[in-house]
Every structure is written in structure tokens, then in C-alpha cells.
Amino acid sequence: MNNWLFGRDQILEIIKSLEKAKIDIIECGYLELNGIRNEHSTRFSSINSFEDIMSDVSPEIVNSQLFLMIDYKPELPFEEIPHKNNTKGCLDGIRLAFSKKHYKQAIKCASDLMEKGYKVCIQPMVTSSYKDQELLDLINLTNQLNPFAFYIVDTLGTMNNEDVERLYHLVDQNLNKSIKLGLHTHNNNQLAYSNSVEFLNIGNDRGLMLDSSLYGMGREGGNLNTEIIADYLNKSTGTSFNLIPLLQIIDNIFK
């Protein structure tokens, strides 16, 4: 919508507000690796460029973990990502999204990122396009790796409650219990909220994660709204997300 050009001051204000709202994990942008450095963009050309911006506010981030997203492509220079010990330590983890044709290479990349000290979320895009055996193979590879989280990803926004339930049970029954199970929704059919609530209601003794974005801002149909799901969680599960900073950012920046 804005070519990632939020502006440096707005980037920092959004991250600080998400921290004040007690959001567990804040995805701060897109790690492009071979991109052009621009301090006003949330497409970061390196972890160093991300940390240069974050150094102004990182001491204030005490409740939230900070992540970046990588859209896996074989040609990306992953070797340029430094070990976490060789950075300022601002970045906690990486959300690694990948297409089905690259899932085996992406798992190897995830292993390398974990060896470098980062938490990794495994996100197979268009998860519903995997045949059951393909998904079980990916889950088996994930179990060997034991990453931070594994996701069901509705990239095209076409899944309904029944799809969520079927994939939840398939993944839950085969994924190591120590690995969190997440859902990443898109709102093309206006079902991101409904599917997310269904996902939570199915949940058992496993750690669950939901991806969301303020004001639902995201590609095409957008994503699950952070302010809406946070309000639902406060009312239904007794969480204590602070909604005021979220609403202020929507009014003052996003609109």
C-alpha cells in the first residue's frame, strides 16, 4: 500500500506502541538481504540496517520479542546473516515463509538460522495446497529441527473453519508438542477473525500463536486485525493486552 515507506519516526512509534500494548512478538519488517538500504522503509537490507534503526528504542522493548520476515528464495545470500552473538542483540527471531517447491531447502535454511542463534517460525505458504503426505514429510523435517513454531498459512485467504479444523488436527497429532503451532490468515473472504477464533477454540495443551496486523493492513485482502483479536483474547481468555496504544496508532498513523 505504501511501498513499505512508513518513515523512520513512524516505524519506531508503531513498535513502541505495540510494546506498550504488551504484544508478545512484534514483526518489524521484511529482511530483504539484497535490497537497498533506506532508513524510512521496513524492507531491511541487513540485520545491521534493522539494528541501526532499533538502537534508538531497543532499551524500551522489555515485554516483546522482535522478529523479521524472510520470504525464502534460493538465490538470497543467507550466508550474510551474522550470528546473533555478533550483533547488538535486537533481533530475537525470523519468520521464514516459503513456497511448496522450496520446502526442503527452506528447512535447511531454518536450521542454519537456528544455529546462528535465532528463533525461527516455519511458515509453509498456502499450506492447504500440500497433499497430506507432503505436509507430513515437512512436519517430520520440522520435528528433527525443533524450531520455535510451525504454522498453518492461509496465503490466499480461501480457508474456512472446516479447513482450519482439518489442518489443525493433522498438524497437531504429528508435530512435536514442544513446537508452538501458529495460524497466519488473510482476509480475502472476511474469514480471518472467524478462522482464528476457531483455531483457538480447537486448541488443547499446545502453545498457540496467531499472526495479526494493526488495522488489518496487509497485502490484498489484509490480515487478522491485531486490535480486534487482542480485545477478543482479553474478554475470552483473561489476557491483558492494552488496546489504547493500538487504537492511537491506527488513528494517528495508519489512517
From TrEMBL:
Pfam families: HMGL-like. InterPro entries: Aldolase_TIM (IPR013785), PYR_CT (IPR000891). Residues 100-234 form the Pyruvate carboxyltransferase domain. This is Pyruvate carboxyltransferase domain-containing protein. It comes from Bacillus songklensis.
